Amino acid sequence: MRRGGRWRWPEAAADAALALVLLGFGLLATGLAADNQPGSRPVDAACRALIAVAALALLVRRRAPVATLAVVTVATSTYLLIGYPYGPILIAFLVAVYTVAVWLPVRPAALATGGAFVLLLAHVFLGRGPAPGWTGVLPASAWVVVPFAVGVVVRVSREAAARTRAEEARGRAEQARRQADEERLRIAQEVHDVVGHGLAAISMQAEIALHLLPKRPEQAEVALTAISRTSREALDELRVTLGAVRRGAEREPVPGLARLPALRDRLAGAGLAVEVRVVGDPRELPAAVDLAAYRVVQEALTNVLRHAGVASAEVTVDYRADELTVEVTDQGAGATTGPTDDEGGHGLAGMRERVAALGGRLTTGPRAGGGFRVYAGLPVEPAT
């Protein structure tokens, strides 16, 4: 009922309006009700006072529902015991019972309403004039049972709606957490690919520079220049990847197959000659497919650089009608040149997860004629 330590003014205003309407209606309509009930006591000042007490008690019905019901019940029972006509004062009693049923748990609401019902029945047996007796119990009970039942239904409906909203909020929070986790895993995979490839190339170039430095320092300078270029490119790509997690950072274009020439040149500086073949007509690909294909090639060539012990590798990119395939092969020592389907570290697992997420397939393993092969097929929409 409170918000920031203050009563909610819209609800207080609604209660005030209801109380004033019932007050005005009771004062005006009770006289008409008396005209149709000849045996009732005439409307006088005491009658109007009781009507006013019952109506104005509703001003605090939300803040003190039990107290409101008690005041309204006492006023209504006194009104009926004196013998005033049945009339609008019973509407105030109905509202008070409904309020208790809505705002209190069922057990205390039932106890409070039961006490009000017992007090209301006093006029059935003790009222001035001809008392209706047991025949008046059923009509009197209707003024209690009906609003109580309606109030309980409304309360249960509100609680069910609140539970549904809470469950939906928890579901949205859980979905947001899952999306955040997936995004963190994606960023971690991107960082692994970028850093792993860059460090592998830098390590190979550094070994070349160390080997050439004592005998041919002029060629060692070429290797050191390649190290500088590779590290700068890797840092730039890492900066783009990490920029995705900064709030408000602008997303730069993600890597794709268009960067294969730069990748080939970078690996050439590390001592690995890469031949790139393109089959079919190159076309624009979905960003996710383009990135996945590039990462597969990058990780496969990194493994060649690390494990194969050869100076060359081949990359084949095949643009098919409804699929893009990439294949990386080398002439290394077969199964020892890289991780197989049942082995391997995070790089191969990352490739497989990336491809599987797009509904594609990935096969890796030694070639029959020697060397190692990585093959990925990624579905794409047919070209129109």
Automatic annotation (TrEMBL):
Query: Which InterPro entries has this protein been placed in?
Result: DUF7134, HATPase_C_sf, HATPase_dom, His_kinase_dom, Sensor_HK_TwoCompSys, Sig_transdc_His_kin_sub3_dim/P
SUPFAM superfamilies in the record, alphabetically? Answer: ATPase domain of HSP90 chaperone/DNA topoisomerase II/histidine kinase (SSF55874)
Q: Which Pfam families match?
A: DUF7134, HATPase_c, HisKA_3
Q: Which reaction does it catalyse?
A: ATP + protein L-histidine = ADP + protein N-phospho-L-histidine
Coiled-coil positions are 159-193
EC supergroup of this enzyme: transferase
A GO molecular function annotation here is: kinase activity
Histidine kinase domain: which residues?
295-382
PROSITE patterns in alphabetical order: HIS_KIN
The portions of this protein that span the membrane are 88-104, 109-126, 138-156
What's the domain of life for this entry?
Answer: Bacteria
Record has Zinc as a keyword = no
Name the EC number(s): 2.7.13.3
Q: What are the alphabetically sorted keywords of the record?
A: ATP-binding, Coiled coil, Kinase, Membrane, Nucleotide-binding, Phosphoprotein, Transferase, Transmembrane, Transmembrane helix, Two-component regulatory system
Q: What is this protein called?
A: histidine kinase
